[in-house]
Amino acid sequence: MLPGCPTWPQEFADRYRKAGYWEGVTFGEMLRERAVSQGDRTAVTDGQKSTSYRELDEKVDRLAAGFYQLGIRPTDRVIVQLPNITEFFDVCFALFRLGALPIFSLPAHRSSEIAYFAEFSEAVAYIIPDVYSGFDYRGLAREVQARAATLRHVIVVGQPQEFTPLSGLYIEPDQSLPQVLSGNIAFLQLSGGSTGLPKLIPRTHDDYIYSLRGSVEICGLDEKSVYLAALPMAHNYPLSSPGVFGTLYAGGKIVLAPTPSPDDAFPLIEQEQVTITALVPPLALVWLDSASSRSCDLSSLQVLQVGGAKFSEEAARRIKPELGCTLQQVFGMAEGLVNYTKLDDPEDIIVATQGRPISIDDEIKILDDEDKEVAPGELGHLLTRGPYTIRGYYKADQHNARAFTRDGFYRTGDLVRLSPDGNVIVEGRAKDQINRGGEKVAAEEIENHLLAHPGVHDAAIVAMPDEYLGERSCAFIIPYEMVPTVTELKNFLRERGLAAYKIPDRIEFISAFPQTSVGKVSKKALREMIAQQLSSAPEVH
Ligand code: OOB
């Protein structure tokens, strides 16, 4: 087992096994079984090149052998930063079969994030595409390698330059690999975060595969299902809710879209007869607005999932009449708990709630600021504990003491209430985070970067309302005498290697922050200030 990963107390582990949630199957075994039952049926296609379940299984065996020969061992951490390409599956399942642990980073991450993951986790390898979406990841790898002493290998899909080509690592397996246990950590997922440094989420084979099985059942996936991976699939939602891994679990077909834009996605839906896909709210709006003007036939699409951020009821009501498919709202978190509206729920529940948890053993508490249960239907903080919700982040004892209760409930930071029929309605957030159309920005992380600028005396970042993304970020800055310009500050953050979605959308200079009654910065007052300013003089983006 990987040190630094809090896990379920024995009593809970026994209970979850006994209830049949944790079946004792690893990802490596799951794929092997599907290769037997699905054989030559397509597992993954990008619309041009298809890979069958049997081929995928064989490639995974060869790549696992190659990784092993390279010196990658069980529990070694490997940063995987791949877009929606077939090799993503070769890499993940080869690492799973070896017992090495992918760290799922997003294609948008840059040197600040990646070097931190590498240093913090002492990763031994980093796997990247050569160039994707106009960005050369090999240049990024050089920067990361200069900072992370443990990083022995950079492995490239495509032209490797001085690095190791992934294509050279598919070798004949000549020895059996170490045994992998289903109760062990399978990978580290990224937390949306609300603190200065991103947190890593340890998920086991047992717990994650249970969440896949539950999701597959709720979303009605089977071997006839065709799932379009439109969002970057390293994210927990398209990865597992039910996402691409759920599709493999069900024996269905995965279709890879290079981007979620209608230009890329719509022709693939028609060509591959896609039955289900997942979007964040701003993209659902783009799809709604372009569906009628396109000639593509989207009639195969049965379910459109929308989640990651709050979807307005107004837009939700348009999905069925305008796209001709059933909306499913998904409210989940990489830490575990996932809620879905059911496909056969009444329309009013589908459009106005974020659904119910996967498992009857997902325990939910809604508490007030003093940790007391609120009255039924009242607004409060959502806490949860269950068979696929982690008991703590990787190597984060101090933070864990705050983010989890003594009896193991995770404080989600979400403000919710329960509808009379038991559906969760997300009303807001208590955590210091901006949800930028599903992309999460931890305020403190960006504030710390800004504070490193010589012209910045203090910084506070808050969400501001945005018609398209739901929220954007606004940085309030108390400058020193030499006031920096907005462009200078944005460039400064870019140069520090921050992902583009974390760069504040707006920067406001201020002489002092409004304070709460106990003398802390009142982010509530700052949010109100900027919202007020926008409503009186909306800015064109
Ligand atoms: C998903 O996962 P994360 O880890 O990127 O973000 C989790 C947070 C939640 O705590 C909540 O604040 C917000 O994202 N969120 C939603 C939402 N879905 C997620 N807020 C309002 N409405 C929703 N439908 O975002 C994620 C993971 C698995 C499945 C779906 C989403």
UniProtKB/TrEMBL annotation:
Pathway this chain belongs to: Siderophore biosynthesis
AMP-binding enzyme C-terminal domain boundaries: 445-520
UniProt keywords, alphabetically: Ligase
Signal peptide: none
UniProt keyword Ligase present: yes
Pfam assignment, any one: AMP-binding
Record-given protein name: (2,3-dihydroxybenzoyl)adenylate synthase
Organism, as annotated: Paenibacillus kribbensis
